[in-house]
Specification:
Elements: E1 2-5, H1 10-14, E2 24-33, E3 40-48, E4 58-60, H2 63-69, E5 77-79, E6 82-87, E7 103-105, H3 109-124, E8 129-132
Parallel strand pairs: 6-8
Antiparallel strand pairs: 1-2, 1-7, 2-3, 3-5, 3-6, 4-5
């Protein structure tokens, strides 16, 4: 699922920020629960119009994927080596001119599998920067 989310970049967190300067589309790449807690937790990957920097790992979204995900047609990348961890549904934002709607759409399953598998690989290899916004 692709949602509008107050994504906090790792570099901004390192500068001392606790909130984002703007909202971004973000892909829900994983959900989980913690024993002894009632909350659901989500791992968000940011989607940006800016190409990945040398330190970032990203996948460009093909036109058909952007359409199915409900995104605009401009070039966009999903960044794979940085994520926000948050309680569901904290910090979701309504879509512009669509009060009460927080999701753009979904990545096609075949593209989501590529995203998920690459994310898991980076997680296992400890090449993932995380911003823990859930207090875990």
């Amino acid at each position: 699922m692709v949602v509008r989310y107050e994504y906090l970049w790792k570099r901004r967190e390192q500068e001392g920020a606790h909130t984002a300067d703007k909202d971004h589309p973000a892909c829900v790449v994983a959900t989980f629960k913690r024993e002894g807690r009632s909350e659901d937790y989500v791992m968000y990957l940011p989607i940006s119009h800016s190409p990945p920097s040398e330190e970032e790992i990203g996948l460009e979204l093909p036109d058909d994927v952007k359409r199915k995900a409900g995104l605009d047609s401009a070039q966009q990348w999903i960044l794979l080596n940085e994520c926000n961890i948050d309680s569901w549904p904290m910090d979701l934002r309504p879509l512009p001119r669509q009060p009460g709607t927080f999701h753009y759409g979904h990545l096609p399953p075949n593209f989501f599998i590529i995203v998920r598998d690459r994310f898991v690989e980076l997680y296992r290899d400890k090449k993932l920067s995380r911003v823990n916004r859930a207090g875990l």
